[in-house]
Amino acid sequence: MKELEELIRLFNYITTKYMDFQWSKSRDDLISKTIKALRAFNEGKTLEEVKNNKEISFQIEDSLETLKKFSSEHPNVVEKLIKALSIYLKSPAPCKTRLISLMEVFLEDMASTKKHSF
Questions:
Q1: Is 36:86 a contact under the CB 8 Å cutoff?
Q2: Which of 34, 39, 99, 113 has its CB surrounded by the most CB atoms within 10 Å?
Q3: Between helices 2-17 and 78-90, what is the axis angle to 10°?
Q4: Residues 91-102: tens digit of each pLDDT
Q5: Model pTM?
């Protein structure tokens, strides 16, 4: 359950960071780079190696440490996050905002469940 919650949190962090809600425009290029970075970390690349690869790191440098930490702490769900982000990328703009809203509902539900569990 903890890994799923962390996956949803990171999905939300990435998608909201690269989304202009006023115009319903997503920076799909930066989300694609995020996926490439996650794959690189999952394959054992170091933070420095990914930072030095400007094809991947340009414009997402400030997220690399978070991505590396997630990949290190939750290696079993990195592929699931990549799949979720890939689905997001293939979705039209209105669906992207709905996916973000859905993930927020899941996070609220998880928080509520934690609050009421013994």
A1: no
A2: 34
A3: 40
A4: 998 899 999 999
A5: 0.90
DSSP symbols for 16-76:
HHTEETTTTEE-HHHHHHHHHHHHHHHTT--HHHHHH-HHHHTTTGGGHHHHHHHHHH-GG
How far apart are alpha carbons 31 and 10 in whole angstroms? 12
Q: Which amino acid is at 48?
A: E
Q: Which residue has the tokens 């689905």?
A: 87
Identity at 24, one-letter amino acid code = S
Using CA atoms, how far apart are residues 1 and 17, in angstroms rounded to an integer? 24
- pLDDT tens per residue, range 4-17: 999 999 999 999 99
